[in-house]
């Protein structure tokens, strides 16, 4: 059976494929956000502004619900493959006597796929489900080699765990297909020839040329039963806990095909054949994000976790008076100074983000807008220590069964060294809330609940002294009963910044105590095999060429 003719001498180098980095993942939870029932809009409400505000709020809640956390992804199954190598070309220099010396260029190698980290990411949303390196360009006449395919680099947050779950090569897949089709030896051979060889567009190669080319490709390790680069080493496993100094190779691009000068032999001086590029092995990985914050904030929806994050770190987390304002975990840095204060301490009350936005808008329109004054530089005070703290979506009863934002949230606090429970002081029974939170953490992973170092009774600015005293008393009793009195019970107002010095210092000590002595270096357990090398083509002098 003749080979399918394929003129690539005149095709332009294929543009490397690019894959847009679009968020693709979604929460695994199917349940809807549950929060306090929306306020009834009364017909006789005379304040029109209030009605508008309520409608605006409802619209926002709906938007958040519909979004279902699509911009937070903590689990992704990803197919990774280096780009295919471009094809070589069969071409000849023009000559008065007929065909001149062979001058087909090699195909360019395919682009590789690399992984790198960013300390600013807290979601896998930037990764796509298919990470494919750009295809190498085809070679062309006059020994012009194809361009290298573009590399694909995926950026993931620190704390991403990568597991290889499948490896599949083109040759293995073809063999399985051939078996399924029940092809005989001859048909299999022709299929392989079609896969690997490219003919000159005008001059057909004879059977002898093809057999010789086949032998050469076998010697070069390309014409094999196994896809080049397919190895049987154990699956790759990486736990990225430290920033990567340089991008790490996940899959190498395939080598480019060989131009016809490579097929010159003693017998065949004018090879009418070139070879195609290698299609590298396809690997399937699972990316799982386990955020690495030293401290995790845990609380029911609307307890004031984001307000606390803002007052401790200055990070502009969204604050609003409804449940599930926060859908993505966010990480901030608390810089503890040697006098016990912390660097980003707020200088005014933290208002709801929407109110701040309106105020900004109003003042801009009125022309009296003043940006917030910068915090004075801490010249005399030195930083004693620093730790990271994550604000998480609200936890609900049965979150361990994936209710609410469920596992996605629990996964991200799994590795925190210490936890701080944020309890809404305005709710009737903070002890009950504490028990719910603890039970959910325990149900998700035994021992997680007891990692709590603080029970912060928040929103105490709205409580009477008697009320605070009674609730603190009850919480201390419960902490003693449930957690041997390990977590400190603190009176806090995240909004007005009261009681926070103690929060900072208790957490700083807890983190220092629990921190492992030295971070583990990242090691690539199973380095990928080296790329195939393209040998130098055999030089042919013009006088030796037969016509
Ligand atoms: N009075 C008072 N209100 C507070 C305090 N802390 C938070 N709030 C208010 O409580 C509401 C909820 O605060 P958030 O920080 O968004 O609560 P959250 O726990 O992050 O909520 P979700 O992200 O929805 O789980 C907002 O209106 C805050 O202004 C506080 O100490 N005192
Ligand atoms: Mg929040």
TrEMBL record:
Organism: Apiotrichum porosum
Any single biological process term in GO: ribosome biogenesis
UniProt-listed Gene3D superfamilies: GTP1/OBG domain, P-loop containing nucleotide triphosphate hydrolases
The keyword GTP-binding is assigned to this record: yes
InterPro entries in the record: G_OBG, GTP-bd, GTP1_OBG_dom, GTP1_OBG_dom_sf, OBG_GTPase, P-loop_NTPase
Keyword Acyltransferase attributed: no
Basic and acidic residues bias (residue ranges): 355-368
Designated name of the protein: Putative GTPase
Cleavable signal peptide: none
Record-annotated Obg domain positions: 70-292
Entries under SUPFAM superfamilies matching the protein: Obg GTP-binding protein N-terminal domain (SSF82051), P-loop containing nucleoside triphosphate hydrolases (SSF52540)
Disordered: region residues: 85-104, 169-189, 352-386
Keywords from the UniProt entry: GTP-binding, Nucleotide-binding
GO cellular component terms listed in the entry, alphabetical order: mitochondrion
GO MF terms, alphabetically ordered: GTP binding; GTPase activity
Stored Pfam families: GTP1_OBG, MMR_HSR1
All residue ranges annotated as the OBG-type G domain in the record: 293-512
Spans traversing the lipid bilayer: none
